[in-house]
Amino acid sequence: MKPPAWTRRHCLLAAGALGLPWLPGPVRAGGQLEEPLADSVRGALSAAIANTAPPVPEFTDLDKRLAYLRWLGTTSDRLQRRKADFQTRIEFLQTVWYETRRAGLDTTMVLGLIQVESAFRKFAISRVGARGYMQIMPFWSRLIGDGDASRLFNMQTNLRFGCVILRHYLDRERGDTFLALGRYNGSRGRAEYPNAVYAAAKNWTHPDA
User: Fold this and answer.
1) CB under 8 Å to 16, separation ≥6 — which residues?
2) HSE on the CB side for 195, CA within 13 Å?
3) Is 199 in contact with 122 (CB distance < 8 Å)?
4) Which residues pair with 125 in a beta bridge?
5) CA distance 96 to 103
6) CA 175 to centroid of chain Cα atoms
7) pLDDT in the model for residue 16
8) Tell me, what DSSP letter sits at residue 19?
9) Rounded to a whole number, what is the distance in angstroms from the first to the last CA of the chain?
């Protein structure tokens, strides 16, 4: 059954109930669809979410650290008009870098996904109730988290859920990013959403990404 569309009034009420600001503007998340998960899959996803290691990148040699710092500096400059506060911007990018590598994802593609999903807004809420940077549907908190959907507005929690879920969809689609992105958006098989992510990802390309 298709979930009811959220009006602007619904979003304002939801944000107000959580004590959060409602930020206007387009949110293109279609919403991941709740599907049955095998116990083994649910267990693996829950374990991936529960790991509380801090998002601090580690490097095996100096060249890799320098590559990261070059990426961080350039990407921070590109993101400045969307996130004006320097410390907030650096913490966000450091966490994106950490969580994408932890999940074995392409950092550039994930930044494109975040741009399309939430326009880099921490408290974005879609018309179907998806939340935060990577627009996570609240049912994921019940399936693989601790049941507290309000935590999806926490930066690291949101990015971790999003990366773990996207990794799950990539595994289901045997590495096909087109189908995995469509599944993430709830529009598997349609081109609009994957193409939007691919286009947005071009804004974040970097030789060291």
Assistant:
1) 22
2) 4
3) no
4) 131
5) 11
6) 18
7) 37
8) T
9) 40
Please report, for the chain, the start and end positions of each structural domain, with discontinuous segments joined by +.
37-204
Name 131's bridge partners.
125, 136
At residue 136, φ and ψ (nearest 5 deg) are: -90, 130
Given a contact cutoff of 8 angstroms between Cβ atoms, the answer to whether 49 and 144 are in contact is yes
The residue ranges of the chain whose pLDDT is under 50 are 1-27
pLDDT for the residue numbered 121? 97
> Which among 85, 73, 105 is positioned nearest to 170, based on CA atoms?
105
Tell me which residue of 104, 106, 61, 103 sits closest to 206, measured CA to CA. 106
Could you tell me which CATH number the domain at 37-204 has? Answer: 1.10.530
Task: For 22-32, write each residue's pLDDT tens digit.
Answer: 333 444 555 77
State the DSSP code for 136: B
pLDDT tens digits, one per residue of 32-81: 777 777 777 788 888 878 776 667 888 889 999 999 999 999 999 999 99
Q: How many CA atoms lie within 13 A of 132 on its CB side?
A: 21
Q: pTM of the full predicted structure?
A: 0.81
Place of tokens 């999003």: 162
pLDDT value of position 43: 82
Cβ neighbors of 78 (< 8 A, separation 6 or more) are 203, 204
